[in-house]
Amino acid sequence: MPPTDKTKTIRLITCENIVEAHFIKNRLNNEGIDCFLTNEYFTNLLPNYFYIFGSGVQVFVFESDFENSREVVKDKLQPQKAEQICPVCGSTDILPGLGSHKFIMGFNVLLAILVGVPIGNVHAGYYCKKCKEDIL
User: Fold this and answer.
1) Looking at the DSSP assignment, which residues form a beta bridge with residue 61?
2) pTM of the full predicted structure?
3) Of 79, 112, 126, 129, which sits 20 to 30 A from 30 (CA to CA)?
4) Measured in whole angstroms, how far is the alpha carbon of residue 57 from the centre of its chain?
């Protein structure tokens, strides 16, 4: 494999807020890994639209530093989580998303954009793929 130079960048992680993104950036900089942030202003101006418009503060690193940076922030990339079980059917086929409320949430977001009224935090939850039940 030919050596990579510092011209191509790769998105390492997308953070929900600017504080978390700067925390990760400082961890990478302390290890000697150059990185930069994008979407800071959009996420600060419209924090309620995370997960909907693909916003969030993105941390980019150079391709040559990608593997090292994954090691530095592996606790953020692969958080420890327990396996979820559907309380209705007992299935472990749980997926993240808006579940059965996709249409309603999409309509509310569109209405909020057109009218200019904030709708509050819209976060994806989980739903069971087997019984289609929403899980909080």
Assistant:
1) 10, 35
2) 0.56
3) 79
4) 9
Rounded Cα distance between 38 and 103, Å, is: 29
In this structure, what token pair is assigned to residue 26?
A: 């400082």
**Residue 84: both structure tokens together:** 């979820």
Lookup: tokens for 25: 């950036």
For 42-84, the pLDDT digits (tens) are 777 776 665 566 678 889 999 999 999 999 998 887 765 556 7
Centre a 10 Å sphere on the Cβ of residue 69 and count the other Cβ atoms it contains. Answer: 24
C-alpha to C-alpha distance for 99 and 97, rounded to whole angstroms: 5
Mean of pLDDT values over 3-31: 86
Asked whether residue 17 falls in the same domain as residue 63, the answer is: yes
70 and 13 fall within a common domain:
yes
CA distance 80 to 67: 20
- Count of domains observed in the chain: 2
Number of neighbours of residue 15 by Cβ within 10 angstroms:
23
Query: Token pair of 117, please?
Result: 């009224």
